[in-house]
């Protein structure tokens, strides 16, 4: 680089730094003061957040430099070769477009802010001006382009199709037809009418979601991710399964926060997949284990890939209620993946020798991270504060804890204070930069929902789904499963959940399934689309890191994650898994856990000691179905049957506990 290029890069980096720090500081201020209504806050956050995103895109494509790890991992060619070719065709002009996008983002947000009172109260009655419609159209185009750059063509295509459908209504056949919308209608309902882009999705995203994403970004900067990986590596040296189970735990923990199975596979997989390969785990299995664990992390409370906050807002129930309802199903999936991985490791002999005692100093090295975590649990569960308030107190606690920790460990000095302040400000910037790509996609989902609801398509799909299934619960659920997987393909967690809950969940609710159960049902299958061929974005990322065959990796991912496709039906048939009661919840949960083990044994062909032939695998499948879906009156019989069957099978067909895996 010449001197002028270096100067421009430093200037851009400085601008990104200032905007990132300011956005996180503003977020904390809004969480504390709540100075104005959420829609107005969403507009300000949208303008600054999208501008920050475009500035970072400029830095990445013009100067080719990136210094925020999570942002780098997000851009793993999610838009495929078409998006890459588009950028290459634009060449040096792409930087000009991204800079222009940043300017437009600030300009349209300023326009909405300056005209907010008129747009909120007067315009719906007296009418909108031509400039209002132009600004609304610019906002729709802006968030669509930001979404394309952040998450690829999958979501952007849905935005384009939704807008095209809204405008082409009079020419569409059958139930797809409607009166149609003009471009002014699209601009109004999509943005300038303070709906669509500014709907509840962006509202939740710029409050509850934003503060937790920013907190996660700050925690990474403070070293939380490194601490988790260090503890995992130390545990891996002491477990027979080595680093494999540790990889599952760390990937699920981080996956709950990231909001994207593919991004989490890239982030943690860049560490865990090579670690598993060094232990001897075959390439396709290493990639499959990571991709399944990262996808499952989206289902784990308390964040659920930020979908928990959106779900609480849509259902208008306390956030703690969402956590309670999702806990047992999430643990079932977590448990099934852990058992499947253990069986695979034992079957192929990918075990390690335990070496010495656990080094407790590694655990103590990050003990201070327990303080903000305890505050988070206390504020959410005990005090039952909103996620916005809980996120504020947790973030402040983490900053204070880091100052205290550094002053104690490094000694009280001006250098320690300055170093910690720099680290904190860098954490502010990193948190904002990690949130920036999500702002556009949340706004884009608001546009999609506005177009689908204004045209009545969402209601028509639900009615048709129930009609085609004849109102039969099982048929409706199977159809909902297929649709949820299809609508979830290639989507990050918030987008996938929002889309399926608008299009698919109403049909399930109509046949008598409780709302929260229906939401969890479609959400699970939307998440499982990340490991479902032919797209399977998490599998694609994992296979790329492991240098493994995509189809073979997808096959192994389905084997390991197979119970996940049956668990949602289990909490439909056993409602006590969602609506807790004593003793029904304890009994049902115990039996379903046993059924999950039987199902894992059938899908992996191994029961922990012996390889299983087809008859025994079929028996395990039958017993697992009884355990998962039997009525409460048969619980004790099922438990006894499974126990006796397991004991009987363990004495049959004794084969060596491990075989040499073929590479």
3D architecture notes:
The model is unreliable at 69-81 and 649-663 (pLDDT under 50). The chain has 663 residues and is mainly α. The chain contains 31 helices and no strands. It has helices spanning 3-33, 38-63, 69-74, 80-90, 93-114, 116-126, 130-151, 153-167, 183-192, 200-221, 224-236, 243-258, 261-279, 283-297, 307-315, 319-348, 360-364, 370-382, 387-410, 414-455, 457-468, 473-488, 493-503, 505-510, 515-528, 537-546, 550-561, 567-573, 584-604, 614-629, 635-650.
Query: Which descriptor suits the 3D outline?
Result: globular
What profile does the largest beta sheet have? none
Mean pLDDT: 83
Distance between the termini: 44 Å
> What fraction, in percent, of the residue positions are helical?
over 70%
Protein name: TRAP transporter permease
Pfam families: DctM
Domain TRAP C4-dicarboxylate transport system permease DctM subunit: 139-578
Transmembrane segments: 12-32, 38-56, 95-113, 125-144, 151-172, 192-215, 331-350, 362-383, 390-408, 435-453, 465-489, 495-513, 520-545, 557-574, 586-606, 618-645
Keywords:
3 domains, globular, mainly alpha, 663 residues, single chain
How are the secondary structure elements laid out?
Layout: H1 3-33, H2 38-63, H3 69-74, H4 80-90, H5 93-114, H6 116-126, H7 130-151, H8 153-167, H9 183-192, H10 200-221, H11 224-236, H12 243-258, H13 261-279, H14 283-297, H15 307-315, H16 319-348, H17 360-364, H18 370-382, H19 387-410, H20 414-455, H21 457-468, H22 473-488, H23 493-503, H24 505-510, H25 515-528, H26 537-546, H27 550-561, H28 567-573, H29 584-604, H30 614-629, H31 635-650
Domain TRAP C4-dicarboxylate transport system permease DctM subunit: 139-578
Pfam family, one: DctM
Transmembrane segments: 12-32, 38-56, 95-113, 125-144, 151-172, 192-215, 331-350, 362-383, 390-408, 435-453, 465-489, 495-513, 520-545, 557-574, 586-606, 618-645
